[in-house]
């Protein structure tokens, strides 16, 4: 792909980086995407969708329909066998993500919370887990410490910061996983079954947080089966059918 | 840079938030954050490091298993045989290969394995690569010292120089022994690979049990096979999650730390999982026997294969005696 000659911005001056991407139009766009696991088991078939900046989207459909795969494609973690994926106005390919600046820009703008929480937690302690992303972004130590403390307080993890993530309960792990993504303050957040493993009270609170984040301008994509999420998050619904194709999308009642 | 004041610090435990969870998101989280850098390429490349390559290699384990399952379900010569026939045949041919002391006989057995592979719809290119890129090559390195007159005295055919005043070189006897050993390993690996890729894993385990292999060994084999894929999935998922939050190019040291931390966590996870899976199996009546639908049964093809096997073994032994005489 063509490389444009934009300025590389590192370290503390990231807050003053010129934001050259278009402020209107789709923030994520997928055209005619096909994907098959191991080249054999189809997961996405001719999927095209467009998500606008600041939009909330619910990704619905039966188990095995390809929702998690679609989120991984949107997160630039797997790449379609055919079709084009564009994010923030730029085509996202394996090759493009090998470009240092593009990788930094993409990963810092887009966060993903996985369905399998177990796999998402790889650090030695909750504090290390939550601070991994912002440290990677090059934020200064005080800023990282503050953000980590804020989110530990927000997610009720303050007493668990020195515990190993694998020692936590299912709901606690889920909260750490969500906090470890939100701490990077991404512009776009992809959630795969975010309320699974959370108790009803925490679920209700977390849905309010999602609504608040959406109201603050974040683009939110949620793959879910949870009726409470579907009912409470004002979002456009997209349905991936059992044939791995998109069915008609619609706006859900607010 | 100014640190955003956190509303979380001042607004605790209200509404329907769980106990100990503050209600409001911190201000910095609901404030747009200017991008880390412009969203475009600059041409400075960051190639996959050792960690990415290692994880890719692990993921390849799953790909190979899926491919092997696919081969086992193809219509082919060995796929038609009862797994017990194949296992016994493998055992007999391995013993025959160990009694063959002429390279030409081992070459004939190797040729037989290639013919069987072709007749069983096993892709020959991949078959050759899997055999020759692994164990025989490793064996060749191991036997290399034994080809010199320092280990195997005899007629020096390739002089290499002197060592502490003694002439050193490769001997005819050493080289012959090395070629024999490598050929034998190649034949053995090829035959074993043929049996494993043309037989599905549950059938193979069932055959092992019916051949009176102790239950403990079969159970350990079954569990190990299952865990390989579970653990490979855990490792690749963890790595994927890490990539999703890795903004800048990783240093090698950070990659090593991740590998060490993952190994520890994986050990703990494997230990926990083994208990959970075993409990689940026992809860559904598992007592150490692998059972499948459509139990294997000996057919005419098995009798024909057994007769062919006897013919091959007798031919090899007679040819070996004739060549030695």
- Count the E strands of chain A: 10
β-sheet strand percentage of chain B: under 5%
- CATH superfamily membership of chain A: P-loop containing nucleotide triphosphate hydrolases
Distance between the termini of chain A: 41 Å
> How much of the sequence of chain A is in beta strands?
15-25%
Instruction: Round the mean pLDDT of chain A to the nearest integer and report it.
Output: 84
Measured by residues with Cβ under 8 Å of the partner chain's Cβ, the largest interface is: A-B, 92 and 61 residues
The CATH architecture classification of chain A is: 3-Layer(aba) Sandwich
Helix fraction bin of chain B: 55-70%
The overall strand count of chain B is 2
The helical percent of chain A reads 25-40%
Query: Oligomeric form of this entry?
Result: heterodimer
Give a description of the structure:
- The complex is a heterodimer of chains A (254) and B (325).
- Chain A has 254 residues and is α/β, with parallel strands linked by helices.
- Chain A has helices at 67-74, 100-109, 117-120, 126-136, 141-154, 170-182, 200-215, 227-232, and strands at residues 26-37, 41-52, 56-60, 82-87, 90-91, 110-113, 188-192, 219-223, 236-239, 250-251.
- Chain A is built from 8 helices and 10 strands.
- The termini of chain A are far apart.
- The model of chain A is unreliable at 1-20 (pLDDT under 50).
- With 325 residues, chain B is mainly alpha-helical.
- Chain B has helices at residues 50-72, 83-99, 103-119, 124-132, 135-143, 172-197, 201-210, 215-244, 252-283, 300-324, and strands spanning 156-163, 166-171.
- Chain B has a two-stranded antiparallel ribbon.
- Chain B is extended and about 90 Å long.
- Classes of the chains: A alpha/beta (254), B mainly alpha (325).
- Chains A and B meet through α2, α3, α4, α5 and α6 of A and α1, α8 and α9 of B.
């Amino acid at each position: 792909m063509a490389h444009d000659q934009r300025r590389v911005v590192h370290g503390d001056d990231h807050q003053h980086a010129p934001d050259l991407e278009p402020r209107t139009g789709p923030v994520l766009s997928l055209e005619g995407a096909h994907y098959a696991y191991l080249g054999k088991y189809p997961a996405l078939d001719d999927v095209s969708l467009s998500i606008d900046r600041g939009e909330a989207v619910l990704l619905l459909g039966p188990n095995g329909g390809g929702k998690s795969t679609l989120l991984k494609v949107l997160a630039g973690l797997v790449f379609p066998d055919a079709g084009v994926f564009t994010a923030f106005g730029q085509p996202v390919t394996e090759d493009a993500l090998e470009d240092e600046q593009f990788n930094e820009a993409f990963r810092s703008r887009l966060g993903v919370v996985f369905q399998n929480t177990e796999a998402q937690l790889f650090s030695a302690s909750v504090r290390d887990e939550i601070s991994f992303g912002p440290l990677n972004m090059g934020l200064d130590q005080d800023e990282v410490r503050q953000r980590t403390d804020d989110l530990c307080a927000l997610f009720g993890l303050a007493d668990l910061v020195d515990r190993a993530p694998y020692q936590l309960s299912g709901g606690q792990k889920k909260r750490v996983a969500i906090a470890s993504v939100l701490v990077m303050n991404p512009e776009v957040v992809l959630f795969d079954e975010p309320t699974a493993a959370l108790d009803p009270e925490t679920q209700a609170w977390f849905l309010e947080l999602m609504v608040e984040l959406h109201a603050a301008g974040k683009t939110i994509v949620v793959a879910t089966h949870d009726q409470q999420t579907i009912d409470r998050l004002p979002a456009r619904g997209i349905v991936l059918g059992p044939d791995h194709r998109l069915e008609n999308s619609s706006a859900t009642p607010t | 840079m100014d640190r955003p004041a956190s509303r979380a610090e001042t607004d605790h435990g209200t509404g329907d938030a769980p106990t100990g969870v503050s209600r409001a998101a911190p201000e910095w989280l609901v404030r747009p954050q200017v991008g880390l850098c412009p969203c475009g390429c600059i041409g400075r490349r960051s190639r996959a490091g050792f960690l990415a390559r290692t994880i890719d290699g692990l993921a390849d384990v799953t790909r190979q298993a899926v491919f092997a399952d696919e081969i086992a379900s193809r219509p082919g010569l060995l796929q038609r045989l009862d797994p017990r026939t194949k296992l016994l045949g493998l055992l007999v041919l391995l013993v025959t290969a160990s009694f063959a002391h002429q390279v030409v006989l081992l070459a004939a057995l190797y040729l037989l394995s290639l013919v069987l592979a072709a007749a069983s719809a096993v892709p020959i290119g991949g078959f050759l690569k899997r055999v020759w890129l692994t164990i025989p090559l490793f064996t060749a390195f191991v036997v290399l010292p034994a080809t010199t007159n320092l280990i195997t005295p005899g007629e020096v055919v390739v002089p290499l120089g002197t060592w502490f005043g003694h002439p050193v070189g490769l001997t005819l006897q050493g080289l012959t022994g090395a070629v024999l050993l490598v050929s034998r390993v190649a034949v053995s690996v090829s035959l074993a690979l043929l049996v494993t890729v043309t037989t599905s894993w549950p059938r193979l385990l069932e055959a092992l049990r019916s051949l009176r292999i102790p239950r403990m060994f079969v159970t350990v084999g079954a569990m190990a096979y299952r865990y390989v894929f579970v653990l490979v999935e855990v490792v690749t998922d963890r790595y994927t999650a890490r990539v999703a939050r890795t903004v800048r190019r990783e240093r090698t040291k950070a990659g090593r730390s991740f590998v060490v931390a993952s190994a520890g966590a994986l050990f703990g996870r494997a230990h926990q999982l083994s208990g959970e899976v075993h409990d689940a199996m026992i809860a559904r009546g598992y007592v150490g026997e692998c059972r499948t639908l459509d139990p294997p049964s000996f057919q005419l093809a098995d009798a024909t294969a057994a007769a062919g096997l006897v013919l091959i073994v007798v031919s090899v032994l007679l040819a070996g005696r004739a060549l030695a005489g």
